[in-house]
Amino acid sequence: MTSLDKQPSAEQESGRGLEASQETDTPEGQAAAKTALLEAFGGVRGMIDTTVPGLVFVVLYTIKRDIQFAALISLGLTLALALIRLAQRDTLKHAFSGVFGVAFGAVFAMMSGNAKDFYLPGMLYTLGLSFAYILSAIFRFPLIGVLLGPILKENLSWRTRNPGRFKAYTKATWAWGLILLGKSAILFPIYWWGDVTQLGWIKVALGVPPFLLCVYLTWIFLAKAPAPIDVIAEMEAEEKAAAEKERQL
């Protein structure tokens, strides 16, 4: 039995839950938790990285009607944003996802000659992600828990030792899946029957609000759930106790 699965005593669980609750029940703790949750999904800079290139593309294409020009400028802007992150030694995870998304979109649009294809890779990614969230919730392995568990130092302990958090992660995962599916349900008909200007502006408009709604709902669900079990602290305590026991022998 590993330290992640070991069942601690009721006294240990109660003490740890009280300590974690005291940390998050204060205004400072709640603000820090909200910030950490937002940053886990890319934060403000992540929203900029994913929204601005699409906005630049639709503006330039509306003005010049040149797919290649608009696509290359948008790709160059995305690379510039990634280089700024690199220079500041900031995380590149979200920047690189933006670079690849814009790069695929630029290639698709230039190869097909259809400006709407600039947005197609991102739309397909959103649709696929919505199905991934929904299926993970159905099969009782909610992706939001998988993503946030390591950040909140609980790893996967919520699956076997914290049923309240398991339920909260499941609700949050359903929220992400259904909201992203609703976003796809709006965008794909416009892709098929609308023009590129309509698609571009609506995609930009649907970039930030659904994301913020998902983050907000996740925060609400987790705020009402039991405190996370800090398995990292548990393992460190076990290692310290084992080392102390060896010194006494």
From TrEMBL:
UniProtKB keywords: Membrane, Transmembrane, Transmembrane helix
Annotated segments matching region Disordered: 1-29
Pfam families xref list: DUF3159 (PF11361)
Biased composition (Polar residues): 1-12
InterPro entries: UCP010219
TM region positions: 67-87, 94-111, 131-152, 173-194, 200-222
Keyword Plastid: no
Protein name, UniProt field: DUF3159 domain-containing protein
Taxonomic source organism: Streptomyces coryli
Source organism phylogeny: Bacteria, Bacillati, Actinomycetota, Actinomycetes, Kitasatosporales
